[in-house]
Specification:
Residues about 180-195 have low confidence and may be disordered. The chain has helices at about 10-25, 35-40, 45-50, 55-80, 85-95, 105-115, 115-145, 150-155, 155-175, 195-210. By secondary structure, it is an all-alpha fold. It starts with 7 loop residues before the first helix and ends in a 10-residue tail after the last helix.
């Protein structure tokens, strides 16, 4: 069979998005110009503007690309895994291992550098890709009886999902330390300066599901 013809326009657009993602995550929104992105792509600015009207529209497309990739990955996990803990572990590991290098910078850029319309677009993408799959895990767990019902413990699926995502964000944002510099407030994540995301994901999920106390919680 003949090989499908390539589409140079689509290939160029994909190159721009990949390059912009690397620069935005490395330098932050304000420090990156369309001129720099075009230069890294080997393009002129007018050629870049043929695909994206401005830097903000390109940033939104980068976030769309990130969210669509995450959504597809989490959907694969949910199809593959059945148990609540297994689903939560693999989702947590994926999100920790594939996080942007500087989450605080990314969130700052979204809140302070983008228009309200772009913020709303990104929030909708994030909710569909990250939040809703995790909520569904807790909903199914409560429905199947593997997790306490919200009425019994006061924690519904959305609250549980926010708790997990908060733990993930805190772990991802924590500084990387080697054995010589680790402390009670700056933990050692493993050998050298490389974080053991598998171990961290297991710890977070175990703490959320089983807690730290050896006694039953008081009634609420």
């Amino acid at each position: 069979m003949p090989r499908p013809k390539s589409n140079p326009s689509l290939e160029t657009r994909a190159l721009i998005v990949r390059t912009a993602k690397e620069l935005f995550m490395e330098l932050g929104y304000r420090a990156v110009s369309t001129r720099l992105i075009a230069k890294r792509c080997g393009l002129t600015q007018p050629a870049l503007y043929h695909h994206f009207t401005d830097k903000e529209s390109l940033y939104v497309e980068v976030m769309r690309h990130v969210c669509e990739g995450t959504r597809a990955a989490l959907e694969r996990i949910l199809r593959r895994e059945a148990a609540v803990r297994d689903r939560l572990y693999h989702v947590t590991y994926y999100m920790m291992a594939n996080h942007p290098e500087d989450l605080s910078q990314m969130f700052h850029d979204i809140r302070h550098e983008l228009s309200p319309a772009s913020q709303m677009t990104i929030y909708a993408l994030w909710k569909e890709a990250y939040f809703e799959p995790i909520v569904s895990i807790f909903e199914n767990g409560q429905r199947d009886g593997g997790l306490r019902e919200a009425q019994a413990f006061g924690v519904g699926p959305e609250t549980a999902a926010r708790l997990l995502m908060g733990l993930i964000n805190q772990s991802v944002a924590a500084p990387v330390n080697g054995p010589a510099t680790a402390s009670a407030t700056r933990p050692d994540f493993g050998a050298g300066s490389i974080r053991d995301w598998e171990k961290q994901a297991a710890v977070l999920v175990n703490v959320l599901l089983y807690g730290l106390s050896a006694v039953e919680p008081p009634s609420v």
